[in-house]
Amino acid sequence: MEAVEFGVAITDPLGITAQGLETISHNNNDKIVLARIAEIIEKYDVNTIVLGIPLNMDGTRGKRVEITEKFMHKLKCKFNKIKIEKIDERLTTVQAHKTMNFLDVNKKNKKNIVDTIAAQYILESYINKISKKD
Question: Domains of the chain by range and CATH?
Fold first, then answer.
């Protein structure tokens, strides 16, 4: 079975910038991810969780969207006092690979950080979206 990764990013205390934090390996066990997210929420005093929705390039919903929305439901049940937002994550992995290529990241290391960088792009998209509402 292929290892499954879950990228995590956080904002600075003012919510202005996003920084990649880590990649959680979980082998399709949501309990591992939920436990680590609980630790991150506690440590960084998180008040909003932003989840990337993996729409197809044409904007349609595929199997991965269903899986993500089921996980989002688990997040809402476990962290019911925290705002849970979703945002389109199309092309964030492509952006992450471009960034790593630009930075000349060692091929062996790319696999370990691509999801963290993609999470940073997802969070930046959310920050930009909410800053336009102000």
Answer: 5-133 (3.30.420.140)
